[in-house]
Design a protein that fits this description.
alpha/beta, Rossmann fold, six-stranded parallel beta sheet, globular, binds zinc ion
Length: about 450
Amino acid sequence: MAVKVQYDQDCRMTITGVECSCGCEHHAIDKDIYIGKGLLEKVPQYITRRGLGTHCVLVADDNTWRVAGEAVEKHLTDAGFAVTRCVIHREGDMLPDDLSCGEVLLSITRETEFLIAVGSGTVTDTTRINAERTGLPFVSVGTAPSMDGYASAVAPLLHRGLKIQRPAVCPEIIVCDLDVLATAPLSMIASGVGDVLGKYIAKADWQLGEIINGEACCPVCVEMVTNAVNALVDNVDEIAQKTEKGMRILIEALLLAGVTIMIIDNTRAVASIEHNIAQYWEMILVQQGKEPPMHGASVGVSTLLVWPLFERFAKEDLSRLDLEKIKAKRMPRENRERWMRHAYGEEGGNQIMRENPGDFLTWEEQERRIRTAQERFTEIQQVIAAMPPLAKIRQVMETLHAEMTPEEEHIPDDLLRRSMHCGKDYRTRYTLFKLLDECGLLEEYLKEYPYSFE
Ligand SMILES: [Zn+2]
Ligand SMILES: [Zn+2]
């Protein structure tokens, strides 16, 4: 049965056709997602229906307070809710760091029954981690279709300057008002599109994991994300003009990405090497005290960066691989440990290695993977052939005046080069980059980087 997304008369999303017998453990979608027009005034009614209580902390930053927070607070107060306001003021952009998380925590009292985040990535993640640590449910009111984290259950945060991911919780209720979303600047909309375009890479990498390592790959999640990203590519003009249809297609794609996370309880369908690279840029720039690029914008740029490697690999001749040579050139464990600490820092490198013990392959395992790739290369080519042409993706981004090069993201050359090498080492999750490395091809493929774009 095909996956079908519909809305009831209250603008609540219903998804059918998600029955699946793949090897992944599946969870029910038990959250309320609302997409539509004029929804801010309905927030109190949605909360009451879900029985979350009447005492809440409302989290926003200066900007999101102005575009929706103030209105949401008024509607809640009018409906008899007791609202503690936590508007986070910053000179520049608010970051999801220790200070912001602490500000939310200190706004919570023993009377607080739920939290409500009015904002996009940073506000939502800062609230999300507090919801998880306090055990309070939370509501997310989206203000920009700029990233796919609304329905996520992990919180990317900055802890002592290091970019970390912490298990957190998904909002009980997500409300995305299409008129509010349309007030977002085009750069934020382009960022959301960049985040969604990365799903083509995530999908291909997941299918590679299935082919090479027998990893369970959920066809329902793949279909859900593929339909959503295809719709986005086909309707980019509507999105650029911020029409109701365009905003709905974009936010739906961003939220459905999150729904796959709810279903299989991990981000496999929505994030792979393109996210690792983008997150690495963010981490290093933050360590250097610089303002990082917008999440989705950098995912869009890294998607363009890694895409040519897929196209090139599809034309590869794996019979040319010299296994003895690959074996001789293997990186000894202590060199790899040194490299990880060099790339991710003493603390970060050690932590990643602890969390991903499977990344030190024995030669037997490496050889098995190479031979599997050789034997099943036609299937790998089919996975890559299912990706749209890179030119089409570039055209989508151009239509939105999206940032397209690492230079536009202010990524220095050395950081760019390092990220292309170490992005694959961020986690065990299988990617084409890991396969290239195992086949002894990665250095050769990366020699020409950064690729010129014109
Ligand atoms: Zn993302
Ligand atoms: Zn499945």
